[in-house]
Here is the input.
Amino acid sequence: MRHVLRLRTGDRVTIFDGTGNECDGEITGQNRQAVTVRVLTFRRPLHEPSLRLIMGQSLVKGDKMDFIIQKATEMGVSSVIPFVSLRSVSRLEGPKKEKRLNRWRKIALESSKQCGRMIPMDVERVMSFHEVLGWSGDHPVRIILWEGAKSRLKSLLRGMDRPDIRSQGLVFLVGPEGGFSEAEVEQAEKSSFRPASLGPRILRVEAAGLSFISILQYEWGDMG
Here is the structure.
């Protein structure tokens, strides 16, 4: 507020508390450590997406995960579950895992501020592939993106009754750079995941998940 936006005492601001509430306020004081704001009005706007999308993302190399977390927040994903799959090149261990998780949560918070979301996207702990399948059991719709799937996403969605995924949620899994193995897809199918392809072209991992989110938000959500 002080160094980037150059705000001063008397300026009006909009703030949020991370639980869905938003306030208009006026800056009444500031120093090097803090900015004080007097609340003028209080409201609970409808900025949160109507769909509850839970994205399971296999760990990927470099800063791709930072990009995916940022864009998933902007596009209305409720939660991201980082997980380790058979072909994951990146594998986090010990203190490095906790450090990276804290970084991703910070990125989700900053992205929420930028795009006007009132509730920051959750970033769950890093899980194994098996743990993700078990964790997903309470959600009625489960999809695993796989280039070898017989069903295209378009036909899969049109053949489904739209579920009440506002409250119960839809879980989808995105693989690493090398994709999922056939054995992993078989395991997922046993846990009621439905394999779906995005089309004839194989997309980079950072494009696949975001393309899926765009399609879901257009068909069932608040985009478009």
About this structure: The chain has six helices and ten strands. The helical segments are 64-74, 94-115, 129-135, 153-158, 182-190, 205-219.
